[in-house]
Amino acid sequence: MRQKFIELGEGYADIYELLELGEQMPERIDYAIAFYCEKSRQAVSSLAFIMKPTSQQKFQPIYICREGIPNPHEKPNKRFDLFQAVAESAGKTVTEFTVKPSTMFPETELYYNYLIGILRTNRILSPLS
Predict the structure, then answer these.
(1) By three-state DSSP, how is residue 73 classified?
(2) Cα dihedral: 86, 116, 106, 18 (round 10)
């Protein structure tokens, strides 16, 4: 099965697309994830919904808004509260990780491979079969 990040943006207005995906397909949400890091001396978060694999078990999308939302533990904010509310309405709790910022990687794809490694290590994503 292929697992892939689908970036919707940085979360300024794009967070509403992520929320809409969660609201329209709550039964498909497998996990709600918040990745926290420090980027440009700002405590930020990336919010993601890991969806259940497709019916053919060949693809598992991870929709993400990358590093554009304040870390709610440092600066409470409405965007995180809305994300958490959608997760809870789908029966999920937000799983949190502290990670390196994407700026430490020469390519965004390498950053996403790093996040997939963290998710597999924590048994949130299954290894490739």
Answers:
(1) coil
(2) -20
